[in-house]
Amino acid sequence: MSEPGEILYEVRNLSKRYGAVVALDDVSMFVRAGEVVGLVGDNGAGKSTLVKCLSGAHQPSSGQVLLEGVERHWHSPHDAIEAGVETLYQDSGLAPHLSVSANVFLGREELKPGILGRMGFLAQKSMDTRAHEDLERVGIAVPASGRSVSQLSGGQRQAVAIGRAVAWASKVIILDEPTNHLGARQAREVLQVMRSAKQQGLGVIFISHTLPHVLEVTDRVVVLRLGRVVRDAPTSEFDAESLLGTITGLNAT
Amino acid sequence: MTQTDTHVAQAAGTQVTEAPSRAKTLFSNQQFLLFLVWVLMVIGFSLINHIFFSVGVAENVLADWAPLVLIALGELVVIIGGGIDLSVGAIVGFSGVISAFTMKSLHGSGVSGPATLVVGIAVCVLVGLLVGLVNSLLINYAKLVPFIATLVTLGACSGLALVFTKGAPVMGGPPEAIKLAPAWLGPFSGPVLVVLLVVAVLWLFVHKARFGRYTFAIGSNSFAARAAGINVKRHIMRIYMLSGLLAGLAGFFFYIRLGSGAPTSGLGNELDAIAAVVIGGAALTGGVGRVSGTVLGALILTTVTSGLIISGVDPQWKRVVVAGLIAIAATLQALRKREGAAA
Ligand SMILES: Nc1ncnc2c1ncn2[C@@H]1O[C@H](COP(=O)(O)OP(=O)(O)OP(=O)(O)O)[C@@H](O)[C@H]1O
Ligand SMILES: [Mg+2]
């Protein structure tokens, strides 16, 4: 585990093109251990694209990704997960036909002990119990472990996705609009979750359009506009108005 | 926490309680409905012609059922994973032909009958695995959609089988194969036991093991599966190779039944397999399906075929009846889905 204050996860001069579309243009940013960084910008600014490059879901067209100062090349999300970087995607992070616990444990299934486990048989009961505990720890809208995700409300799904990310993150946690679909009260719980992740020394990257939340919970804000970083400054330097102005590019300062 | 829990439960108007009672699950259970449909069919056909209710007919039904279940279970796994495999019928014919050529030359060079048959099985299975591998390479790397990828191998395999054989069945295998044929019928014959074993193993791996969990996850949301760290390409390869393997095994079954490797022996089997899977309640959109449903779906199909023949109906009606069954199954599923979405 990195010391608080040390740069934990970083991208340098990252660009990402989708054919002719330049979604990210020479982006550099970082998150320290024990820090919450807000990543904001208008629709289409490139936030989710950056998230996907950070999580290994997409390969950047150019630029570097460094974890604890070491350059890394994620060939797939598997590599990033193994290294302790956990991501909540804006949409479609869950498999709707699977149960709550199957989703929480997806890709990291607990197997039965002994020979059965080596043949790939699942320890379903134990996963159900542990998934419930993990979600309870997060404290938002805990659905029964055995229910299929397709039967959950939008907020409950979001809770499962957050619980999943929080339960497994060991270094960095990236949350792309985690308060989507959540009621005011559940959204507050998510902010609390981020604070406790920070206290545990994780680096948190928080993407949101809800600026009051960003101002409340982050230590630093990175503003993206049309694929470029236009501002990277401590949260204390912003108020609601100036942050909005920086995002839209309409303020004179 | 509990407070929040109840709060949300009330807001959504749902209950957070666990599984419904056993009786309720039994009756809302689609497998149970399928079983009822099958029992009614058997009763109906027996009333039309009492001969239907006999050991001889049961043997025939099971003899048709055995290879169909093999193919359909492979198809089921592919469909749960969000794909489709049109090549299975062609694999049956192609693997049977290649295996027949191999056995013919082994037998000709004096290799013992049993050894020749073992090699014959191995060749069928290997051909199936190979075609499955090609399917997965076309899907994973040439980025073809499964429908097109397996249509390509369907064409290649059925075409090559005809080219190699000039359309005639390949004979000249060991006489032991012919001796096996009668034993190939009957409820407790070798193949039926083999199939029951395959059913049990697949049920375990699809519904109780990580293999199935990954298959459902990929069919449900392949982005989420990859994001969770699953090696989706490797799993797709396994799925199509499994389907090919089972189709190859079915190819050997047909070889024994016919006593030769016929290039057209699996013609149209992919449609029967897909029908069995759909009747068994799986969704072509992926993420849904049960081994027990497919086993029953295949049983219903083969029962209909025999039933029509024995009832004196032109067996060509089979396709029409099967089409009707598919329509009913698909409609039920669409209705259930809508209900689910509304709830
Ligand atoms: N898979 C893709 N193929 C082509 N273009 C894409 C793809 N994904 C994103 N883009 C483009 O890249 C740009 C950045 O999109 P991105 O999703 O990163 O924005 P965002 O900042 O997350 O927006 P939002 O706030 O709406 O979520 C947009 O112009 C978008 O159209
Ligand atoms: Mg986005």
Strand-and-helix sequence of chain A, N→C? EEEHEEHEHHHHEHEHEEH
Low-pLDDT segments of chain A: none
Number of helical segments with 4 or more residues of chain A: 9
CATH architecture of chain B: Orthogonal Bundle
Bin the strand percentage of chain A. 25-35%
Mean pLDDT of chain A: 91
How many beta-strand elements of chain A? 10
CATH superfamily of the domain at 7-93 and 169-248 in chain A: P-loop containing nucleotide triphosphate hydrolases
Number of domains of chain B: 1
Largest interface summary: A-B, 45 and 38 residues
- Could you give the distance between the termini of chain A? 39 Å
InterPro entries (chain A): AAA+_ATPase, ABC_carbohydrate_import_ATPase, ABC_transporter-like_ATP-bd, ABC_transporter-like_CS, P-loop_NTPase
GO molecular function (chain A): ATP binding; ATP hydrolysis activity
Pfam families (chain A): ABC_tran (PF00005)
Domain ABC transporter (chain A): 9-251
Note down, in words, how this protein is organized.
The complex is a heterodimer of chains A (253) and B (343). Chain A has 253 residues and is of the alpha/beta class. Chain A has a domain of 167 residues: P-loop containing nucleotide triphosphate hydrolases (Rossmann fold). Chain A is built from nine helices and ten strands. In chain A, the strands form two sheets. In chain A, strands 6-7-8-3-9-10 form a six-stranded mixed β-sheet, sandwiched between helices. In chain A, strands 2-1-4-5 form a four-stranded antiparallel β-sheet, with helices on one face. In chain A, strand 9 and strand 10 form a beta hairpin. The longest helix of chain A is centred in the C-terminal third of the chain and has 16 residues. Chain B is globular. The N terminus of chain B is likely disordered. The chains are: A alpha/beta (253), B mainly alpha (343). At the A-B interface, helix 2 and helix 7 of A face helix 1, helix 10 and helix 11 of B. Bound molecules: adenosine-5'-triphosphate (ATP) and magnesium ion. The site of magnesium ion has 4 residues of chain A, from helix 1. Chain B: It is found in: Cell membrane. Chain B: Its main location: membrane. Chain B: GO terms for molecular function: transmembrane transporter activity. Chain B: InterPro entries: ABC_transp_permease.
